[in-house]
User: What shape does this take?
Amino acid sequence: MTNQDKIQSLLEKVEAVTKEKKLDLSSGEDLSIGIMNLISIEEHLFFSSQKTGNKKYMELLNEVRVIRTELLKEIIKEYEGEVWCISKHLLAASMRLIEVGTKELKKAVGAEPAEAEKQKQKAWAMFDKAYKLYSLFWGLNLDMVKVSDVKRNDSDVNFTDEKGVKKGSSSVFGKLGSLVQKAIDCCKE
Assistant: This one.
């Protein structure tokens, strides 16, 4: 099976699931962004508790955590091992990298052209990494990535067979990014 055939197969799987109304990916994307923000709120409540010494922030943190956990169950229906925690951390890391990229973009405003371009490139690199992590989140939770199919090979993560031979020339991140881009349309109402 060629690389293109595999991507097409994944797209067909997503279409079948969405046609059966088992999963509304546009709502799932919105929900995942909301969960990212809840994780960020948890972090801010933690730091506020430590900086101020006010334990009320920890009580609020626990309330937010309960809500985040309930909402995460809407996306992560079944999982094995530590996929739950991996998923949470993929969303958290993606959110943080988006924020770092946004700050890099802000530095470009008003900067000399060469410096502005440098900051924009840094921002783009952060956004690219954030999207790869976000795509991996969906790949794991739509059961499109089997952990046993992913192996480290040279400087990239690729789908490989049990002997370590690449199944395609494109990395798992490239495949998932393409899939997420085609399958999830946040503008659907």
The chain has one domain: 3-183.
